[in-house]
């Protein structure tokens, strides 16, 4: 029987860090767009993890890590705004689901944990950006995120321009969509 374990801000300096790099690399190799054209080499991975650890320590970012029976299955960042007039919004970034575990309800579990954390932090709105017409773009749309702007020159891959969508959804709208109540708690 499988057991999903959700952790906020685990120690990414060792095993958890290696696991999220492996998740990112598996997703990039599978055609996922996470801001990386190819899997992270050792130096890039070290830089990514160092920056992540610093942002968590400063309280700028919350990282949700999911594993099932000890195997890493997803990872997502919730970046907080440092601007006083924007503290009601948080950016969702680097949403990664292991290719082996897609379609098994992990996105819903992650959203419920994000909603719970957002409510605790008095975050009222999620924002994100995503490459147009990607798998991730379709997932965000499916869960009710709406485009509020498009940047035609969002990303460049091998000299080719790709558009990107800037999307948003209120935390409570997402909670309604997930049929997630105040009383529920996931982690």
Automatic annotation (TrEMBL):
<dbReference type="Pfam" id="PF00583">
    <property type="entry name" value="Acetyltransf_1"/>
</dbReference>
<dbReference type="InterPro" id="IPR016181">
    <property type="entry name" value="Acyl_CoA_acyltransferase"/>
</dbReference>
<protein>
    <submittedName>
        <fullName>Acetyltransferase (GNAT) family protein</fullName>
    </submittedName>
</protein>
<keyword id="KW-0808">Transferase</keyword>
<dbReference type="GO" id="GO:0016747">
    <property type="term" value="F:acyltransferase activity, transferring groups other than amino-acyl groups"/>
</dbReference>
<feature type="domain" description="N-acetyltransferase">
    <location>
        <begin position="21"/>
        <end position="172"/>
    </location>
</feature>
<dbReference type="InterPro" id="IPR000182">
    <property type="entry name" value="GNAT_dom"/>
</dbReference>
């Amino acid at each position: 029987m499988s057991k999903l374990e959700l952790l906020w801000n685990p120690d990414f300096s060792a095993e958890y860090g290696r696991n999220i790099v492996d998740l990112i690399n598996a997703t990039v190799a599978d055609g996922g767009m996470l801001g990386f054209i190819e899997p992270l080499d050792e130096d890039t991975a070290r830089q990514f993890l160092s920056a992540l650890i610093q942002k968590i320590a400063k309280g700028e970012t919350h990282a949700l890590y999911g594993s099932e029976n000890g195997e890493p299955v997803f990872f997502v960042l919730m970046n907080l705004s440092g601007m006083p007039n924007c503290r009601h919004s948080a950016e969702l970034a680097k949403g990664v689901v292991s290719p082996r575990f897609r379609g098994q309800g992990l996105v819903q579990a992650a959203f419920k944990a994000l909603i719970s954390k957002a409510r605790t932090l008095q975050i009222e709105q999620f924002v994100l950006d995503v490459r147009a017409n990607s798998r991730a773009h379709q997932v965000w749309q499916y869960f009710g995120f709406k485009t509020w702007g498009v940047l035609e020159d969002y990303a460049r891959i091998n000299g080719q321009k790709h558009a990107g969508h800037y999307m948003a959804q209120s935390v409570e709208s997402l909670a309604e969509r997930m049929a997630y109540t105040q009383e529920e708690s996931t982690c």
